[in-house]
Amino acid sequence: MTPEEYHASGGLSNSMMTRLLRSPAHLKHYIDHPDAPTPQMILGTQVHTALLEPDVFADLCVVGPDGPWTRKAAKEEISSMVDAGYNKSDILKPDVYDQIHDMVDSVLGNPSASLMIRSGRSEGKIEDSLFWADPGTHVECKARVDCIPAESSMYSNYLVDFKTTIDASPESFAKSVVNFGYHRQAYHYLSGWNSLHPEDQRKGFIIIACEKSPPYAVAIYEMSDQCMELGKHEVSSLMELYARCDEDDVWESYPPTVQMLDLPAWATAKVGQ
Predict the structure, then answer these.
(1) Global confidence as pTM
(2) Domain parsing of the chain, residue ranges
(3) Where do the DSSP E strands lie in 212-259?
(4) Per-residue model confidence as pLDDT tens digits over 175-212
(5) At 169, is the secondary structure helix, strand, or coil?
(6) What is the C-alpha separation between 123 and 150, in angstroms, rounded?
(7) Among 17, 16, 26, which Cα is nearest to 254's?
(8) Is 208 helix (H, G, I), strand (E, B) or coil?
(9) Of 162, 169, 158, 138, whose CA–CA distance to 246 is shortest?
(10) Rounded distance between C-alpha atoms, residue 212 and residue 191, angstroms
């Protein structure tokens, strides 16, 4: 299944739950009016493809002309590439093409990350689309797992996800986990995989994080029990909320009543200073 087919299919995904966490109205707007991908999202997708499916990347992306693309000759060359069947977003500036390959080289230069990715490519699975029904709410769910290492691999107990990031250090990436819902993604993906594969149960979730600027540092993190517990709590409550909204076709935003607003925890230490 192609990424386009997956995204067009039905089912509640982690990215949808991120919007539902803000409010049902925000999710409904996203469903009815999907966001156009940002340049950073496009770059992330291209790095994913280059790392996980290099043959697909080679067919999909092409290097554009050197120098400014405002030049007439450059515009004509890009136009010829579009006529040849390339999407304009897949015509890469030479420095971006080099950046993508440098990031891929950095990931594959990490022995643990390389072992996971190569195991998924050879005997496991790459970009595997999952569809299942949540047993408690019967909500139709979906997920697309980056890498499932082979059962013969030392990482056979894990599902593996790849992320590009500004800062892969433990302190910074822990914030990314919470801000982008990676803990929720971990629980959601494992729930889907294990419900569909009783003969191959996975118990852990690993994220390979690669920074987007030199030296393209790589860090590998396993989601802790604390991460998984928070993910389970959020997924369970969001499944119930989504089931109610979908059944009643009522997608509310924020409460209509006046609410008391407290300061965030990090700001309360300044009170009285």
Answers:
(1) 0.90
(2) 3-36+109-248, 37-92
(3) 218-222
(4) 999 999 999 999 999 999 999 999 999 999 999 999 99
(5) coil
(6) 5
(7) 26
(8) strand
(9) 138
(10) 30
Name residue, tokens 């139709």.
140
Question: Which residue carries 């997924």 as its tokens?
Answer: 235
3-34 pLDDT, tens per residue?
778 888 889 999 999 999 999 999 999 999 98
DSSP label at 12? B
Q: Are 119 and 153 in contact, with CB atoms under 8 Å apart?
A: yes
By C-alpha distance, which of 8, 27, 248 is closest to 142?
8
d(CA 121, CA 108) in angstroms, rounded, equals 13
Model confidence over 123-153: pLDDT tens digits?
A: 999 999 999 999 999 999 999 999 999 999 9
* Rounded Cα distance, 59 and 221, in Å: 31
User: Does position 270 have pLDDT exceeding 70, yes or no?
Assistant: no
The CATH number of the domain covering residues in 3-36+109-248: 3.90.320.10
Tokens 């890009």, residue located = 78
Task: Say how many residues make up the chain.
Answer: 273
Structure tokens at 180: 């982008």
**Residue 213 main-chain phi, psi, to 5 deg:** -130, 155
